[in-house]
Give the backbone structure.
Amino acid sequence: MNPLAQLLRSIGARTIDGIWRLGFATRFLIATLSHTPAAFRRLHLTIREVYFSGVLSLTIIVVSGLFVGMVLGLQGYDTLVRFGATEALGVLVALSLVRELGPVVAALLFASRAGSAITAEIGLMKATEQLDAMDMMAIDPVARVVAPRFWGGVLSMPLLAAMFSATGILGGYLVGVVLIGVDSGQFWSQMQNSVNFRDDIVNGIIKSAVFGVAITWIAVFEGYEAPPTAEGVSRATTRTVVTSALVILALDFILTAFMFRGIG
Amino acid sequence: MREFPRCPTAGLFQYYAALKIKPDPHPVSADNVVEIDRLSFGYNSGRQVLADINMRIPRGKVVAIMGQSGCGKTTLLRMMGGALRPSSGDVRVFGESLVHKKQDEIYRLRRRMSMLFQFGALFTDMSTFENVAFPMREHTRLDESMIRDLVLMKLHAVGLRGASHLMPSELSGGMARRVALARAIALDPELVMYDEPFAGLDPISLSVIGQLIRALNDALGATSIIVTHDVQESLKIVDYIYFVADGRIIAQGTADEVRSSQVPYVHQFVWGETDGPVPFQYPAPDYASHLGAGSKP
């Protein structure tokens, strides 16, 4: 076959496959959402998933947040000191974290830590026939396994992003005020005056909630659709992390365009 | 090879024989828990897995489906559980056709049946006790003390009451299979399906599982279907055997009939002969030319 025709054919096949997979993932999301009442009726299952996805991710979130905030403090001070505006360090750190870095970096970490774990767990349950066993007991695995994990992740993500931002601001304070010597009163008062609850904090929470839906949707879908082999689960876990990272960054651009600049 | 000597419909065959009328080898009866007619199944890729399958599983019996790995046995079992739909033909369980059933209707029927998976499929995040209690908690509103007693009774029946606190990772292969068996009978099902229950077990565990399948079937008044290729163990406990090869039923009969069968495939399978209708060599080009210089692998 002509190499060009072969290339076009390959692109076409990949495109069709991608569209088919997206459609299938959407149907899966609808099925998961339709089991939302079941997930909240058995609240202990959802709380357990909040623990596994949220509480167990706290260490990586808090430590990363602290370091990101400290780096922001250093870089921010280095830039602001050239303009004699070091008192704005608190604003710079807070807005950077609340608007962007908090939701985005926390989401990337969440995808790596909790998203991959959800995919691996569901994928292994499938590979060891646990999902089939549940199905044969007349218990829908989407209701019993997928929906609680989905809502556990969705509820955890905004809380983790808030924790990330909070510890990041603390890191910026430690570097800017304690280490470098920026005035503590100016650090906090500028932040209080300039950070708007509706435009900055609520929009940051909305962003992290959207990221939470995207990551856990990808994670549960990849796990549920993983080929029931060691290689299949391994590939699905990798795909969860890679796809989630790309989707987070793309969604971040779209959401930022709508929230902070308007569109057109 | 074609009658059910111990099945409730056995008398019909003698009756037909007296009338010199050739009986239908697969009579439809209320006493059949599973009835399969002219079933065929193939995947979208075009690969045909099962063709023209006819089967009757009488109530109260232990029936084995035997054949080589990949011959379609497990696919057939999944059809009976409603996990797969046939391309053509009919599968009736408890008198109801599964072919056009919706998921909730399939689930309603599945509450009357259960399946033991090849390696147990125990839930790895739950203890032995919780695994057996799982179907009770999901499908009944029994109080905790009642569930506790029932779980201990089920575990006692499989000899593992003392292991109720262990996690699946702490169980041996044979113990895990027994716990899965206790979970499978948790709600006293009318039909129990076993997918390779003897795979990978040591001789003692294998014998224990075999005896438990027979004993529990008779004690519960259930019907059991065993998919297996372990001939010697299953012939000790089953009432009737279907042989599947290349997606078709090629022979059937009681354990004694199977042992004395002269059907080449059955004979090779039962006596474990290395060559016969199932060749030792995978199809390949001529040996001498294949080894010759310059030939490609």
